[in-house]
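$ run holo --ligand "1-deoxymannojirimycin" --emit tokens
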Amino acid sequence: MLPPSRRDFVSLALAESRGYTNGKQRRQSCWRKWKQLSRLQRSIVLFLLALMLIGGFALYPSLSPQWGEEHKEEKKQPFIIDVKDQGRPVLPEPRSERRGLRKRGPPALQNRLQGRGNSSEVRLKNAQEEEEGKPLISWHGAVIEAEQATDPNAKEKEKAVEPEDPSVLQLEESRLEAVREAFRHAWKGYKEFAWGHDELKPVSKSYTEWFGLGLTLIDALDTMWILGLKKEFEEAREWVAKELTFNKNVDVNLFESTIRILGGLLSTYHLTGDALFLEKAKDFGSRLMPAFSTPSKIPYSDVNIDKGTAHPPRWTSDSTMAEVTSIQLEFRELSRLTGDPKYREVVMEVMRRVHRLEGKHDGLVPMFINTNSGQFTHVGVYTLGARADSYYEYLLKQWIQGGKKETELLEDYVQAVEGIQKNLLKRSSPLGLMFVGELSHGHFSPKMDHLVCFLPGTLALGVHHGLPAEHMELARQLMETCHQMYVQMETGLSPEIAHFNTQADSIQDVDVKPADRHNLLRPETVESLFYLYRFTKDRKYQTWGWEILQSFNKYTRVDTGGYTSINNVRDPTSPSPRDKMESFFLGETLKYFYLLFSDDSNIINLDKYVFNTEAHPLPIWPQTD
Ligand code: DMJ
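-- output --
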């Protein structure tokens, strides 16, 4: 028989191990156990407890600052907007990456760039990647949780491990070849009937002159390089070297010549490394400078590149908003390359003044600005279409070009998107398509220019660079709408302007007024399809683009060479050619088709390049600049 105390102990232990005890019993047993211990045993237990307590306190101070630091570190992470004392939000610099090697050489770039990356001076980490898990705070206080954001790389990562399906590769190559073939056909017409002139008239086999500077040829240079059309590129280079001169007594439009000529020369210089193009860009850029000699510093629309004189259009002293705010990427880049700040200074002065101007409506700008007073004119009319479109595009793109430091640009962009969401969006009937209308003195008009179809691509680009995920949702919906602007037409080609039906009993979403039925071979929808495909890898965007290319081939291709704009997208039996191939068909439309059909995200990597509004890629600046 065990002594009573031992019996108790055993029975308690058994009871505990079977899990029969309640809390009160457990407390009693502990007390009983404590009392059973000898004085020495109790002292040892107490001593050990005291030791543990002291150790705990001693360690605490060394742990606490570490916590503090960790939290500070978190706050310092890039892409979290740091709200400083003055209340002005400051976006910390993105992490600077090591300089990449310049990769230059002859065309057929797309073959040799596989897996190597494009020529670049900076390697920026994907913004989304860097900000993973970190909240982004909008200028208007909304906190955007990073996990809401789409991971633009997710599909690309999937793609990287996807085994190369031969039928997919074959389809890709056949579509790329179809674009090259379309380019060669267009080039054939230009070469035979318009060589060295501004635009081809493919039906009458002649040409038009706008500036008299070989506009189509210059606009198409980097497209040929990207498509790998070596022979054509070399012939064009030869013309630039031997024939192109800016010593000409001609008036050029500041905006159009900047985006097409200056932008085309600068991007070709970057892709090829050929100093000829930089020299030409310098010469041309310096001849545009007189446009900025105005009382308000808001440039005139036209410059005579020989006399060095500038003037507004004959009927007004206004310039259009898009024109004065969509020349910045090119002038800024020219300053960076030449080391001469004057180009950057004149265009940034325009941005500063526009930023400060009263008269915006929730971040939306009027279509005109006066070159004498520097004030907005025609206040009260707001559109994302003609005369305002690329103002919004360049806010975002300048911010990207400069390494995401110029917070006023981002602020204006984010506010403008909020303004679009608040004032310009409506749904059509019967399909419920989200479209961007116009506001005229408080009256909403369901009119949408095809030009507005740049917007899905720009929104998607913003999300890729860290902006709110809800912009991507809007981009997807607007992309669908732009697609419908094509498929609801009998030719499968979009009109220049669409009117959306909003009444519940409508039969078709898109209506077109007789004067708006033309198609100028514009790029905006194909451009946005390219961005949406690059970031989502959803193949439906390629399919939509492929259908558009088929329609261009069916209704706008001229047998003897070239493509023509048409008068009537609603009449497949008589689309009525307008006899003009705009330079942007080669500069933009065909280039974006090619990039859309390519699965190689390294052909013009969007973490290294930003496209100007004429589809000429310019480098995102290295962080040391
Ligand atoms: C091009 O010159 C540019 O894309 C510009 O931003 C808008 N108009 C044409 C293409 O439609």
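-- notes --
The chain has a mean pLDDT of 83.
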